[in-house]
UniProtKB/TrEMBL annotation:
Gene3D superfamilies, sorted: YbaK/aminoacyl-tRNA synthetase-associated domain (3.90.960.10)
The keyword Ribosomal protein is assigned to this record: no
Protein name (record): Cys-tRNA(Pro)/Cys-tRNA(Cys) deacylase
One Gene Ontology MF term: aminoacyl-tRNA deacylase activity
Record InterPro entries: Prolyl-tRNA_editing_YbaK/EbsC, YbaK/aa-tRNA-synt-asso_dom_sf, YbaK/aa-tRNA-synth-assoc-dom
Top EC class, one word: lyase
Species: Dendrosporobacter quercicolus
Domain YbaK/aminoacyl-tRNA synthetase-associated: 30-145
Membrane-crossing residue ranges in chain numbering: none
Family note: Belongs to the prolyl-tRNA editing family. YbaK/EbsC subfamily.
Amino acid sequence: MKKTNAARILDGLGIEYRLQEYQVNLDDLSAEAVALKVGLPAQQVFKTLVVRGDKSGVIMACIPGASELDLKALAAASGNKKAEMVPLKEVLGITGYIRGGVSPLGAKKAFPVYVDDTIENWPVVAISAGIRGCQIILAPDALLRAIGGIVCAIAR
C-alpha cells in the first residue's frame, strides 16, 4: 500500500495508525458509503470539509460522516460572523485534495481544523488518507495532536 502525505506526517510524529483501503464508487463518495466499506459506523468516520470564514479565511471542519456541518456553530467557534462552504471547484487549488479525498493532514497549507466534539466518544476514528480509496484509522487524541485540532460542537 502506497503511503500518502498524511500517513508520512503521522509517521514523522511517531503516531500509530492503520491504513484501510476500500473500493471507490465515484457515484457515491459519501462518508456513509466509506463507513460501510471500512467496517465502522458512519459516526466514527470523520469527513473533512473546507470552509471560508469572513474573518479567518479558509478553515477545515471534521465532522461525523452521518452529520451535517452547523455553519453558525463553526463561525462562532472560529471567531467569524459567518462561514460558508468553499465551492467544490476551489477545493483542489486550496488544499491539494480532490472531493472524496480531503484530509485534515497534509494540505498545501496548514489550516486551522475544528473537530466535532463527538470525536471524544470513540476509541478510534477514520479520516481520509488524502486520496480516494484509503482511510487512516487512529485514536482521536492522536489525530487531534497531529492536526492541532480545536474540539467544539459543530455537527448536527
